[in-house]
Design a protein that fits this description.
This protein is an all-alpha fold and about 120 residues long. It contains five helices and no strands.
Length: about 120
């Protein structure tokens, strides 16, 4: 049986990798080996940072809620514990949005929790 050379498939695979790393700097966008490494690292960073983004947003929301709570005469920890006791079920994202966009509604939530 005749030998089958893999040139077409290899070129197609290489071009796919080079298309993915098109915006990279230096050899990372034209050398197959460097481009393949860059692609693997980029995919890993994207996976990692999707999780870090959730962590960062949670921290941001807590900071915003705490700042708004302090303007209303309480702290974040006291507000959250009082909200649990008052059965007010609002998550951090919604509370932070209220704190930034609608201070009156946030004050009403704080008053309901502290009452």
């Amino acid at each position: 049986m005749a030998r089958v050379k893999g040139g077409v498939k290899a070129r197609r695979r290489h071009n796919r990798i080079l298309a993915i790393t098109k915006g990279q700097f230096g050899a990372r966008n034209h050398s197959i080996r460097r481009a393949s490494e860059a692609r693997l690292h980029a995919l890993w960073y994207a996976y990692r940072d999707r999780r870090n983004r959730r962590r960062d947003f949670r921290r941001l929301w807590i900071v915003r809620i705490n700042a708004a709570a302090r303007l209303n005469g309480t702290t974040y920890s006291k507000l959250t514990s009082r909200m649990k006791l008052a059965s007010i079920r609002l998550d951090r994202k919604v509370l932070a949005d209220l704190a930034v966009r609608d201070a009156a509604a946030f004050s009403a939530v704080v008053q309901a929790a502290l009452a």
